[in-house]
Amino acid sequence: MNRVVENVTNRVIERSKSSREIYLNRVSEAKKSGTNRQRVGCSNLAHAIAPLRSSEKKFMTAMQAPNIAIVTAYNDMLSAHEPYSVYPSLLKRTLLDNGATAQVAGGVPAMCDGVTQSQTGMELSLFSRDNIAMGTAIALSHNVYDGAFYLGVCDKIVPGLLIGALTFGHLPGIFVPAGPMPSGISNSQKAKIRQEYALGKIGKDKLLEAESASYHSSGTCTFYGTANSNQMLLEMMGLQLPNSSFVNTNTPLRDALTQEAAKRVLSLVEKKISIADIIDEKSFINAIIGLMATGGSSNHTIHLIAMAKAAGIVLTWDDFDDLSKVIPLLCKMYPNGSADVNHFREAGGMSVVISQLLNSGLVHNDIETIVGKGLGNFIVEPKLRGSYLLFEDGAKTSRDEEVVSSVEKPFSSEGGLKLLKGNIGRSIIKTSALKEEQMFIEAPALVFESQEQLQKEFKEGKLEKDFIAVVRFQGPKANGMPELHGLMPPLGALQDKGYKVAILTDGRMSGASGKVPSAIHLVPEASNGGVIAKIKSGDKIRFDIKNSEVTLLVEEEELNRRELLNLDLSKNRYGVGRELFSTIRANISSAEEGGSIFDLVGKERG
After folding, report:
1. Residue 239, C-beta contacts closer than 8 angstroms, at least 6 positions apart
2. Are 64 and 160 in contact (CB under 8 A)?
3. Bridge partners of 444?
4. Among the four residues 239, 367, 437, 507, which has the most C-beta atoms within 10 Å?
């Protein structure tokens, strides 16, 4: 095992000792209760089985056949989740054929960041994760279940489902993906057209035509953003069937994998392997390592911290940073390259990534998974032979080295994320898509209090120069920390013209961002007394990415004299349902603490 990986793992275990003990004790107490529906009264059970068919009622009242909860994030507006419309019936039929039952225990919201990107609704996006966690808990609170299926794919949905699932850690559980859509126009072509639109070279009709050729059917978007990073994480943590995440939706193989998930959860119930038996400190370390090796979404520097807390595990940005220094970048998928997740799967997918990491001692093999002990069980490839699903030996070396490389010849010797420190605070930067000349930038600040202000000045031709855009009051407490992905086309266009540009913000970027140097998730945020609230246009800022520094080049004495800007954010408090989230906004933690209203082991922040 790599010494740094081992050291980081040990310090996470030590740091988490007291909170982890509390969590595991709670799980142990819940496990002692036995089959949940045996504990409810006759009236309670009658309500639970009232809509079932007679054959299902017999199973339920016999108290011996497992009853599995389905927590679904289905809607038919979100392309990645539309396929879930048929999953409950498929899972139920498969379980009935195997002498068990399932019920849709509840639905959770699933908003599409693609639809709300650069729109007001994006200010609810991060908040939705904890809402989903609470919805999951409400669904499972009926307490008549022996296990659970979690149906979710996209950005906040998987983290929210896992936080909720971990609070029911005594239940066996399995995540069931829907798969990506087939490839449309190339991601590089889509990005080019977006920049042409930002420059006024094409009209909205041509932009919509290109966007619709990219996002064209049911299934996950094919670029490697947060949604597909979620799927990678679930495999690295052993919660999803091996090398199954990127099998296309609405195919016979996808359906066979969904049926196999039903059989697998019954095996977990029989063996009494709960989700808390699978998830531990090493699971989360593996997830971070997978994130670095694949060039995954920067959003997970927030979400993984929040997910880990639900299991009593304490992660920090320093853990991410230390691991990134020793984990090679093995994948080139958009935004880090031109390939998409379908090309990734064709190159060998997760089987190759896991094989390369295991062979180099860069990832923990001794973890529990839904298919048995050891991450090595995930070096397989699911295939249909007639009507039978088989997991054959998977590729250990890439079938396309332009998409997936090797530890010996990585695309970069370090992972795709870095922690930046300096007199402004701590921030995260995604480096996997940056060029060598972008690793050091020193330029005057241009301060913006909103993304709309930057867009306006770009259209007016005021940004044709070197600068570092400071976009502040975008943190969790200010306005829910919306993604600022809409700033990438104008900044990318300026960068392509030869200007040195970068962005410093207490907001987020999309998991699909990375072309422009972006110091994001800055803490402390402007609304919480951060130095970013003192920056003035014209101040020099230095990005020294190789040395992990971002520095405001203003004398300390001058900085101390400046007062913090106290911006009126009242307009961010209402409209599009924002009134309903005031309690979350008031109690949410910083980005580095997971941007959550939950504290360790499920306690609310107080």
Report:
1. 162, 173, 174, 175, 275, 278, 279, 369, 370
2. no
3. 540
4. 507
Classify each residue of 464-475 as buried b or exposed e, where b means 16 or more C-beta atoms within 10 Å of its C-beta.
eeebbbbbbbbb
Cα(171)–Cα(68) distance, integer angstroms: 10
- Reported pTM: 0.94
DSSP letters of 104-126?
A: EEEE-----HHHHTTSGGGGGHH
- Tokens (6 digits) for 592: 């580095």
Measured between alpha carbons, how far is 216 from 392 in angstroms, rounded to an integer? 31
| Strand 518-523, strand 501-505: pairing | parallel
With CA atoms as reference, report the closest residue to 226 among 154, 328, 169.
154
pLDDT tier at 148, thresholds 50, 70, 90:
very high
Q: How many CB atoms neighbour CB 234 within 10 A?
A: 27
Q: Are 145 and 136 in contact (CB under 8 A)?
A: no
* C-beta of residue 590 within 8 angstroms of C-beta of residue 476: yes
For residue 606, what pLDDT band results from cuts at 50, 70 and 90?
very low
The structure tokens 């502040």 sit at 472
Query: Is the CATH number 3.40.120.10 carried by domain 417-567?
Result: no
Assess whether the previous peptide bond of 335 is cis (omega < 30° from 0). Answer: yes
Return the DSSP state at 536: -
The answer to the question of whether 221 is labelled as a binding residue is yes
Taking Cα atoms as reference points, which of 604, 39, 8 lies closest to residue 310? 604
Q: Is 267 helix (H, G, I), strand (E, B) or coil?
A: helix
Cis amide linkage into residue 51, ω under 30° from 0: no
| DSSP label of 395 | P
Angle at 296 between CA 294 and CA 300, to 5 degrees: 140
Provide the residue type at 374 as one letter: G
Report the DSSP beta bridge partners of residue 552.
541
pLDDT tens readout for residues 157-197: 999 999 999 999 999 999 999 999 998 787 778 778 888 88
Residue intervals of the chain classified under CATH 3.50.30.80 are: 417-567
pLDDT over 50 at 388, yes or no: yes
- Which pLDDT band, with edges at 50, 70 and 90, does 396 fall under? very high
Residues 342 and 183 sit within 8 Å (Cβ to Cβ)? yes
User: How many percent of the chain have pLDDT more than 70?
Assistant: 98
Say if residue 20 is exposed, middle or buried (CB neighbours under 10 Å; 0-12, 13-18, 19+). buried
The token pair at 225 is 């953003």
Residue 125 CA to residue 482 CA, distance in Å, equals 7
- Residue 520 has which token pair? 């994001």
Give buried/exposed letters for 93-116 (b at 16+ CB in 10 A, else e). ebbbeeebbbbbbbbbebbbbbeb
Distance of CA 283 to the CA centre of its chain: 15
Contact 441, 517 (CB under 8 A): yes
**Ligand-binding site membership of 42 (annotated):** no
> Pseudo-torsion of CA 429, 215, 163, 578, nearest 10°?
80
Buried b (16+ CB within 10 A) or exposed e, 492-508: bbbbeeeebbbbbbbbb
